[in-house]
């Protein structure tokens, strides 16, 4: 718990950071790799590192609140990769999936929640209960009159996503009677992008990864081709508003060149 003097200093610093962003260009779409849940739990002295997943899942809604407050209307979160689902211990995966069902999916159903849910990844690698909970939330929020869009990448692999998009394009063309030569002549990046899990949504302007790791881990490989990257040394459950504001400040200070 923060002491009163530290709390006051924190609020003052947060206001100063917010003021610095007042007349800058903020990202339209922020993507986040929420890394370090278990390491945070160990750092905090918990006997069960898996508790970090609960704190991390609960923290999602706080971070979404910061985004909404700043007018950031597109957020993408990397929750679990295909490798996470296959290679992690079964009890850890089961615990994470319960957190997704109870702490992420269920609150999105509440009428006061402004976010419309989109899913990215392979539903077939998820437990039935998790798949059902996320699909229910996606369907329930689809017609929500809102400009706030949350994409949850779960059971996700960026290379597999691109392969699936190309496969879908080829199947569509084959059904239309096109030859392989026809497809090759007409093939465009836009045609592939339209068949990604995120088809129709804007690419991320800023990708934030917590925990100090400096890699993408297969997250939004196509979509993040021109994104600004920001690596934060704190673990996800300990990711504070001032850490988020610092990331936005770093983004606003960069001159985006889109391929240069």
UniProtKB/TrEMBL annotation:
<dbReference type="GO" id="GO:0016094">
    <property type="term" value="P:polyprenol biosynthetic process"/>
</dbReference>
<feature type="binding site">
    <location>
        <position position="40"/>
    </location>
    <ligand>
        <name>substrate</name>
    </ligand>
</feature>
<feature type="binding site">
    <location>
        <begin position="215"/>
        <end position="217"/>
    </location>
    <ligand>
        <name>substrate</name>
    </ligand>
</feature>
<keyword id="KW-0808">Transferase</keyword>
<dbReference type="GO" id="GO:0000287">
    <property type="term" value="F:magnesium ion binding"/>
</dbReference>
<dbReference type="GO" id="GO:0033850">
    <property type="term" value="F:Z-farnesyl diphosphate synthase activity"/>
</dbReference>
<protein>
    <recommendedName>
        <fullName>Isoprenyl transferase</fullName>
        <ecNumber>2.5.1.-</ecNumber>
    </recommendedName>
</protein>
<feature type="binding site">
    <location>
        <position position="209"/>
    </location>
    <ligand>
        <name>substrate</name>
    </ligand>
</feature>
<feature type="binding site">
    <location>
        <position position="228"/>
    </location>
    <ligand>
        <name>Mg(2+)</name>
    </ligand>
</feature>
<comment type="similarity">
    <text>Belongs to the UPP synthase family. Z-FPP synthase subfamily.</text>
</comment>
<feature type="binding site">
    <location>
        <position position="88"/>
    </location>
    <ligand>
        <name>substrate</name>
    </ligand>
</feature>
<feature type="binding site">
    <location>
        <begin position="36"/>
        <end position="39"/>
    </location>
    <ligand>
        <name>substrate</name>
    </ligand>
</feature>
<dbReference type="InterPro" id="IPR018520">
    <property type="entry name" value="UPP_synth-like_CS"/>
</dbReference>
<feature type="active site" description="Proton acceptor">
    <location>
        <position position="84"/>
    </location>
</feature>
<feature type="binding site">
    <location>
        <begin position="81"/>
        <end position="83"/>
    </location>
    <ligand>
        <name>substrate</name>
    </ligand>
</feature>
<dbReference type="GO" id="GO:0005886">
    <property type="term" value="C:plasma membrane"/>
</dbReference>
<feature type="binding site">
    <location>
        <position position="53"/>
    </location>
    <ligand>
        <name>substrate</name>
    </ligand>
</feature>
<feature type="active site">
    <location>
        <position position="35"/>
    </location>
</feature>
<dbReference type="InterPro" id="IPR001441">
    <property type="entry name" value="UPP_synth-like"/>
</dbReference>
<keyword id="KW-0479">Metal-binding</keyword>
<keyword id="KW-0460">Magnesium</keyword>
<feature type="binding site">
    <location>
        <position position="35"/>
    </location>
    <ligand>
        <name>Mg(2+)</name>
    </ligand>
</feature>
<comment type="function">
    <text>Catalyzes the condensation of isopentenyl diphosphate (IPP) with allylic pyrophosphates generating different type of terpenoids.</text>
</comment>
<dbReference type="InterPro" id="IPR036424">
    <property type="entry name" value="UPP_synth-like_sf"/>
</dbReference>
<comment type="subunit">
    <text>Homodimer.</text>
</comment>
<dbReference type="Pfam" id="PF01255">
    <property type="entry name" value="Prenyltransf"/>
</dbReference>
<dbReference type="GO" id="GO:0045547">
    <property type="term" value="F:ditrans,polycis-polyprenyl diphosphate synthase [(2E,6E)-farnesyl diphosphate specific] activity"/>
</dbReference>
């Amino acid at each position: 718990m923060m002491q009163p003097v530290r709390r006051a200093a924190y609020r003052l610093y947060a206001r100063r950071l917010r003021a610095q962003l007042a007349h800058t260009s903020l990202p339209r779409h922020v993507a986040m790799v929420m890394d370090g849940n278990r390491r945070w739990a160990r750092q905090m002295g918990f006997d069960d590192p898996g508790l970090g997943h609960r704190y991390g899942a609960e923290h999602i809604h706080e971070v979404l609140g910061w985004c909404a407050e700043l007018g950031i209307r597109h957020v993408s979160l990397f929750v679990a990769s295909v490798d996470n689902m296959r290679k992690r211990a079964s009890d850890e995966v089961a615990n994470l999936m319960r957190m997704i069902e109870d702490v992420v999916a269920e609150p999105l159903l509440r009428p006061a929640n402004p976010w419309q849910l989109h899913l990215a990844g392979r539903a077939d690698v998820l437990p039935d209960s998790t798949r059902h909970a996320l699909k229910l939330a996606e369907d329930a929020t689809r017609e929500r009159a809102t400009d706030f869009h949350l994409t949850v990448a779960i059971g996700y692999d960026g290379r597999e996503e691109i392969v699936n998009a190309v496969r879908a394009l080829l199947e569509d063309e084959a059904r239309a009677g096109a030859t392989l030569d026809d497809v090759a002549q007409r093939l465009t990046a836009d045609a592939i992008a339209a068949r990604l899990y995120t088809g129709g949504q804007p690419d991320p302007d800023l990708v934030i990864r917590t925990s100090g790791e400096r890699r993408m881990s297969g997250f939004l490989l196509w979509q993040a081709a021109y994104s600004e990257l920001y690596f934060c040394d704190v673990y996800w459950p300990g990711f504070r508003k001032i850490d988020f504001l610092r990331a936005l400040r770093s983004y606003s200070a960069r001159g985006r060149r889109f391929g240069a």
